[in-house]
């Protein structure tokens, strides 16, 4: 085996990683140990921070199959390194397994998939493992997932359950009987305990981890250095700051762990009943469950401790923990292909595809429906961290790093400061050697310059701005679980909105119905609750085709179903547990009309029928339910009217889908035009269909029939028209976003034309804008995939569609500002199926469609996530706003996901709005922009603070002087900390503006601003430093010096006597020091004002009252001690007496400095324009963002947008590059 091999695990998945094998090397370990001793432990810290170095420094490369340590590297853009130790799982002493079975089962590997039965499992594993003498399995654990070595793959792989590679047929035939105790014990060894373990680390562990942070190590180094140099007060102040910071950090981290632990602990250990092979029922703890166990769902419900597929009975489940949707969902048993009339035995089971038959971990089973003598059973398919909830918890425990230019630039910023510190370090050594200073002093002073240049308060200062923004968001009802995302939200330039419940009201109102008789539409009817319709099949479909249930006596279910059922005024009755137990089959849910709607009984011609002439006998029992599927876009039921021999099948769903299931002769010829008329007005339209089933279909046969066998050859019955009103605030919010140059996109599961209509109503698509519908068709019958383009608005007006004049093609609007390139007069609209085809076969078109795609209809949850990713690929900063239902993936993927659901699904979203209104979106962007600008202000201020202090110390080093201990303390605590923590308090500007803040620190305007202020500050400090030496009264200061002889005072006499008694051994007290101290103190305050910009992203700094008051107090205090010295203060700060004339001169220097700094910063926009125009003169500016470059290209492309009634065909499959060509048909 090649020792230099590199393998890949989780290939094609989000957590794909490269894996390298290593073995421990004793001689390398010895060398590293010696290095650790020689460096005083610093090498150990370095290896702790860098796992790649740690492994390479102590190990040698080895084959992955034989290694002792694995080194892992993610293949994403972050390229993060992890290491894990190989462990061995021993099966030698297991009481349930004979030695022979062990040899058959175990070798240097594991079983990746569960085999179909016991004998096959043994044979399969015997084939897999070559080293049959070994009785140990090699594995490692990474991010709570175990990876086992598999000899057939020659690689590590995680242990899968029944969720992959298992057919629906085998679920029933091979797994429905349960496990033997021996097989259960064997699987438990491999899969481990079924729990989502979120261990709350001890305070000591968290403390060690926090203290070993590079920042705190640097602070520790600084404190030791300052203590050696007798800067005790400043060192103590930094220690106190660090301790407070560490304690607050530990508190917040531990609090998050406890919250997460409490969230997952609800189902951690409960007693469950499982069926064994010999039909006995065994009661075990939920932590002992393994894939393949047959779990009995209790009658009174439970919180699911695992993911399981339902094979018997029906459950009503609350899945709000996962989806954010509080509406109970009906789960039915997985169709058994072996007994189905039209079975598909080869179909593989998948938890996502078969969601309606899968009970997910953490969801609550509210009620069950069951057969007498048979339990409601479910087969465990995934346990622990492999479950849907486990994966959600893993994504919270191990989040991906936030990729944002600001944070990348922050590291460059620190590296620049380190480089500056290096220059100062060399200068200090050279200067002190030339001046023959002692070696000990040289070492301390040269290291001290490094601690001055890299500000220790920087992380705390940056965190403060985000914390303040988080607090302001909380005040407006937006809660944040990922504070780093607040800054990123300041860059959002596109927001995707879900439609129902987000842009529109959550509920629907029944507008009316359009029944069909003899393949013709009747006139619209508003009132469905009347005697004429009570026994019609149309009303029977409305009464039965739903997923409503009674929970504690209250009707509960999908809001659409509720509105529909309430409109007919019928009554729903469900069988009690006792009633169900008395019968030999499922007791159906019964619906019946109220008595007042039934017509009076009339004498029948046949006297034998008199017994049945009671009006109250009209009841319909719901025999079988096929729940709504977002993929199929429909639901259906099998029902029977009391007394009828034959059963009825009813279907409701998307009109275009239902029409396709009906006999063509029953569908009105004007179906499409009527449907389009309603959808274009923004109505939600649902179609109904009916079919009389054969008499041979008995009750039990219906329980095992597939929905495909039912949902065909239907009779079209008509349309239900629902009105979905826009929320009152929606148009205004979208208008504000458009004014701010923020694109809006609609992502919905609703009908295409309804979505386009709502987009027009809410202002997402302006009245004069054109809508181009992209209808993509997959390859079939040897033909390549193609896209048909047609214009939504021209369809009804033009009888000859091909004759549309080319002038109807919308013009492109080319703006001076590149930010406006995306604002054009045409929009693309497409449905989920077309979107998938385009992603697969037309990859070259995807960026172009993303640039102008506005309406995405009939989108499945995974397609929403793919859309967000496609938009991010063209460099949009994408926000996603949804109600939590089916939006979890997109909310997590977006740069800023805002959930309008307060339920537990909000753990998937960085932001959660307390009020279900999209007005939270502009609020979040405003606060994000304010927080981002605050971060820039803090960075710029801290850069200036470092450079000002660095230059002050460098100037004083030239005369072998330095700032005093209390001078450092006053600057760093009284000025810097107060200013930094108050300048971050500026609230956000009251409205969104079209301008966006820069995304990174390394931009021309920001660099020019910082560099100009640095030069100004250095210039005025140098002026003061050298000018004081030119004064007539100047001399090299000594304790007997008295430059204030013209203004002798008692205070200065007392100070003078103090100076005589205690000579200054470190040369702190001198005229240069005093001058530099006063000028630099004012410079810190000046740059704080200069950098505290307000409009257009933050409120003006004068509205930040804490900041203003702090500055006034500091200005007054420094002016006071400069112009009117106080002996005690001068003594503490080690300031010397200077003539009053020089104090006035210093004041003039400070005022001129302030004036120049403010004028330079205020003219920054003018300088930036001059620079950009100068740059444009020499070369054409190319936008950085892909979508801007694309907009430039498309603005001169005569073939774009596609003309009406043209077709784009994919090129031949052999090319396989996703390219396409346009052909006009």
List the helices and strands and how they pair.
Blueprint: E1 7-9, E2 17-24, H1 26-38, H2 42-49, H3 51-58, E3 59-62, E4 69-74, E5 81-85, E6 87-90, H4 99-105, H5 118-128, E7 136-142, E8 145-150, E9 155-158, H6 168-173, H7 181-191, H8 203-211, H9 214-228, H10 232-264, E10 271-275, E11 281-285, E12 294-296, E13 302-303, E14 307-312, E15 314-318, H11 320-323, E16 329-331, E17 358-359, E18 364-369, E19 377-382, H12 388-397, H13 405-434, H14 439-453, H15 458-475, E20 478-480, H16 484-489, E21 494-497, H17 499-503, E22 509-517, E23 520-521, H18 537-544, E24 549-551, E25 554-556, H19 559-568, E26 571-573, H20 577-581, E27 589-592, E28 620-629, E29 634-641, E30 648-653, H21 655-661, H22 671-680, E31 683-692, H23 699-703, H24 707-710, E32 715-723, H25 730-739, E33 743-747, H26 752-761, E34 770-777, E35 786-791, E36 826-831, H27 832-841, H28 846-852, E37 853-857, H29 861-873, E38 878-882, H30 888-893, E39 896-899, E40 911-913, H31 920-957, H32 965-983, H33 1004-1029, H34 1050-1061, H35 1071-1091, H36 1105-1123, H37 1127-1133, H38 1140-1162, H39 1164-1178, H40 1186-1194, ...
């Amino acid at each position: 085996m090649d020792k230099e091999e590199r393998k890949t695990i989780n290939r094609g998945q989000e957590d794909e990683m490269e894996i390298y094998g290593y073995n421990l090397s004793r001689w390398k370990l010895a060398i590293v140990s010696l290095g650790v001793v020689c460096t005083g432990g610093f090498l150990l810290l370095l290896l702790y921070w860098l796992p790649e170095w740690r492994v390479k420094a102590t190990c040698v490369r080895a084959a992955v199959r034989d290694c002792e340590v694995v080194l892992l590297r993610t293949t994403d853009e972050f390229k993060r390194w992890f290491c894990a130790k190989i462990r061995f799982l021993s099966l030698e002493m297991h009481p349930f397994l004979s030695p022979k079975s062990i040899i058959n089962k175990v070798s240097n590997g594991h079983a990746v998939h569960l085999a179909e039965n016991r004998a096959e499992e043994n044979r399969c594993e015997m084939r897999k493992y070559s080293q049959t003498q070994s009785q140990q399995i090699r594995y490692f654990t990474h991010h709570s997932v175990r990876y086992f070595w598999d000899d057939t793959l020659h690689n590590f792989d995680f242990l899968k359950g029944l969720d992959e590679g298992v057919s629906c047929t085998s679920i029933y035939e091979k797994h429905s009987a349960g496990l033997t105790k021996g097989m259960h014990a064997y699987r438990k060894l491999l899969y481990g305990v079924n729990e989502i373990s979120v261990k709350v680390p001890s305070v000591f562990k968290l403390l060690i981890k926090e203290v070993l942070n590079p920042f705190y190590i640097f602070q520790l180094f600084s404190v030791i250095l300052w203590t050696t140099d007798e800067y005790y007060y400043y060192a103590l102040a930094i220690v106190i700051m660090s301790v407070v910071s560490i304690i607050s950090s530990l508190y917040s981290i531990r609090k998050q762990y406890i919250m997460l632990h409490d969230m997952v602990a609800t189902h951690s250990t409960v007693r469950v009943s499982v069926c064994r092979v010999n039909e006995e029922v065994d009661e075990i703890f939920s932590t002992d469950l393994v894939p393949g166990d047959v779990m009995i769902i209790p009658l009174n419900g439970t919180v699911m401790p695992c993911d399981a597929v339902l094979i018997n009975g029906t459950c009503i489940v609350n899945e709000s923990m996962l989806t954010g949707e509080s509406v109970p969902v009906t789960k039915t048993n997985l169709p058994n292909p072996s007994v189905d009339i039209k079975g598909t035995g080869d179909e593989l089971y998948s938890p996502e595809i078969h969601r309606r038959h899968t009970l997910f971990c953490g969801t609550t089973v509210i009620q069950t429906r069951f057969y007498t003598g048979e339990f409601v059973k479910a087969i465990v398919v995934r346990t622990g961290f492999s479950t849907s909830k486990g994966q959600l918890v893993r994504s919270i425990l191990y989040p991906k790093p936030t990729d944002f230019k600001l944070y990348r630039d922050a590291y460059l910023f620190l590296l620049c400061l380190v480089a500056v510190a290096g220059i100062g370090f060399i200068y200090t050594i050279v200067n002190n050697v030339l001046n023959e200073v002692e070696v000990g002093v040289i070492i301390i002073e040269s290291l001290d310059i490094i601690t001055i240049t890299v500000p220790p308060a920087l992380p705390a200062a940056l965190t403060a701005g985000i914390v303040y923004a988080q607090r302001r968001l909380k005040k407006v009802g937006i809660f944040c679980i990922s504070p780093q995302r607040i800054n990123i939200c300041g860059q959002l330039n596109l927001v995707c909105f879900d439609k129902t419940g987000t842009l529109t009201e959550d509920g629907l109102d029944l507008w009316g119905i359009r029944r069909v008789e003899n393949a013709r539409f009747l006139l619209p009817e508003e009132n469905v609750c009347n005697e004429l319709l009570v026994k019609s099949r149309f009303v029977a479909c409305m009464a039965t085709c739903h997923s409503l249930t009674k929970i504690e006596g209250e009707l509960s279910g999908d809001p659409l179903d509720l509105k529909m059922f309430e409109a007919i005024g019928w009554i729903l009755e469900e069988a009690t547990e006792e009633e169900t137990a008395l019968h030999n089959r499922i007791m159906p849910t019964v619906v019946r009309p109220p008595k007042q709607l039934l017509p009076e009984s009339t004498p029948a011609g046949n006297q034998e029928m008199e017994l049945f002439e009671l009006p109250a006998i009209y009841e319909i029992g719901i025999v079988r339910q096929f729940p709504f599927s977002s993929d199929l876009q429909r639901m259906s039921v099998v029902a029977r009217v009391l007394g009828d021999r034959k059963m009825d099948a009813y279907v409701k769903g998307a009109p275009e889908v239902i029409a396709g299931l009906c006999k063509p002769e029953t569908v009105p010829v004007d179906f499409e035009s009527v449907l389009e008329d309603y959808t274009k007005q923004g109505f939600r339209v649902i179609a109904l269909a009916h079919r009389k089933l054969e008499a041979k279909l008995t009750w039990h046969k219906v329980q095992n029939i597939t929905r495909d066998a039912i949902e065909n050859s239907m009779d079209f019955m008509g349309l239900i028209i629902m009105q979905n009103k826009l929320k009152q605030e929606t148009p205004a919010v979208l208008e504000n976003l458009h004014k701010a140059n923020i694109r809006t996109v609609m992502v919905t599961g609703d009908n295409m034309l309804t979505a386009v209509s709502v987009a027009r109503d809410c202002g997402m698509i302006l009245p004069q804008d054109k809508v181009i519908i992209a209808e993509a068709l997959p390859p079939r019958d040897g033909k390549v995939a193609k896209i048909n383009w047609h214009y939504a608005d021209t369809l009804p007006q033009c009888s000859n569609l091909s004759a549309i004049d080319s002038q109807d093609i919308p013009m492109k609007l080319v703006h001076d500002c590149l930010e406006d390139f995306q604002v054009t007069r045409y929009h693309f609209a497409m449905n989920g199926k077309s979107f998938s085809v385009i992603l697969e076969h037309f990859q070259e078109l995807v960026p172009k469609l993303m640039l102008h795609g506005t309406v995405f209809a009939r989108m499945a949850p995974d397609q929403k996530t793919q859309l967000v990713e496609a938009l991010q690929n063209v460099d949009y900063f994408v926000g996603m706003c949804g109600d939590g239902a089916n939006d979890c993936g997109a909310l997590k993927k977006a740069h800023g996901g805002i959930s309008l659901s307060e339920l537990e699904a909000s753990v998937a979203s960085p932001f959660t709005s307390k009020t279900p209104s999209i007005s939270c979106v502009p609020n979040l962007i405003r606060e994000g922009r304010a927080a981002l600008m605050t971060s820039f202000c803090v960075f710029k201020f801290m850069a200036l603070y470092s450079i000002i202090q660095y230059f002050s110390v460098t100037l004083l080093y030239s005369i072998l002087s330095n700032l005093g201990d209390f001078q450092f303390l006053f600057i760093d605590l009284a000025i810097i900390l107060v200013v930094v923590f108050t300048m971050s308090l500026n609230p956000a500007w009251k409205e969104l503006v079209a301008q966006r803040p820069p995304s990174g620190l390394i931009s021309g305007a920001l660099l020019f601003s910082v560099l100009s202020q640095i030069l100004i500050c250095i210039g005025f400090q140098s002026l003061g430093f050298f000018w004081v030496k030119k004064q007539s009264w100047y001399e090299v200061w000594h304790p007997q010096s008295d430059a204030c002889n013209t203004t002798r005072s008692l205070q200065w006499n007392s100070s003078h006597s103090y100076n005589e008694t205690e000579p200054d051994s470190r040369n702190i007290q001198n005229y240069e020091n005093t001058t530099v101290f006063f000028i630099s103190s004012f410079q810190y305050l000046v740059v704080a004002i200069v950098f505290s910009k307000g409009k257009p992203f933050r409120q003006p700094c004068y509205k930040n009252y804490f900041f203003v008051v702090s500055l006034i107090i500091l200005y007054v205090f420094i002016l006071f001690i400069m112009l009117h010295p106080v002996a005690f203060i001068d003594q503490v700060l080690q300031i010397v007496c200077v003539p009053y004339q020089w104090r006035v001169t210093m004041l003039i220097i400070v005022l001129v400095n302030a004036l120049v700094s403010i004028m330079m910063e205020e003219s920054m926009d003018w300088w930036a324009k001059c620079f950009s125009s100068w740059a444009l003169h020499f070369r054409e500016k190319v936008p950085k963002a892909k979508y801007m470059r694309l907009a430039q290209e498309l603005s001169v492309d005569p073939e774009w947008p596609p003309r009406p009634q043209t077709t784009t065909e994919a090129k031949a499959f052999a090319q396989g590059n996703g390219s396409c060509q346009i052909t006009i048909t």
